[in-house]
What we know:
By secondary structure, the protein is of the alpha/beta class.
Amino acid sequence: MSLDLEPDEVGPLPEEATSRPSSRVSVPRPGEPVSTVEVEDHLASLLSPHSYEADQYRVLRQFITEARAARPLTIVAITSPAAGDGKTTTSINLAATLAQTPGSRVLLVDTDLRRPFVAANLGLSPTRPGLAEAACDERLELSDVVQSTPYNLAVLPAGVPPANAYQALESARVGQLLEQASRSYEYVVLDTPPVLLVPDCKLMSQWIDGFLLVVAAHRTPRKLLGAALSTLDEAKLLGIVFNGDDRPLSGYYGKYYGGYYHEQSARAAGGWRHSWKRDRKARRQQWR
């Protein structure tokens, strides 16, 4: 599947806006009664597990599983060229899909300390300490800042945004926490800051086994994509997640998907698709 991006400018759209519709679910916390919180409706893997969209994340999970068979791959980072490309949505859905495998242990970490959205999307407590606090306080262990969900998915939220996010991520404590997480969990999925806007993502590359780059169809400029590909370590780039494709499936496939799924998915009516590219060298040349 080839990329078909239009050279539109990336606008200052807020990523994963908190004004989206949401659904109420119960999230048990250790030692506390079950509480009811809101989970954002665009998290298909959690709320619509039988939808076309959820199946696309399962295909992405299979891709990650196959890549792991060929190389060490525990810490997987999701990034994007700029804000608003859908990296947080992709991070949460991928982590939740990985956690659906029986017996799996998956940790989702929000490392975007400047604009954290994971906790808000999952309805987790915004007052409990997170990565930012643990980076500055060695007394906080990994277990002190990880929150549970009803989806067999552990989450380490960003916490309260620090005054200097880069300095917090530069702390050796962050590397120690991620190393501990890699020993305790089968997969550690990181929602990282956009790679071109701030240097945080490149700083964390030392602890990351592989990157997935999320781009927004018809919005991410080709030059921006090319710059992002040049910035990331080619040896660690797993592929591109093509997000927000509104072209309807045609012919046989359009009819097949439209009638196959029990629930009406946005994609069946012309929603979006995900794709990933393994031929990284050719793609780098194409988008420069």
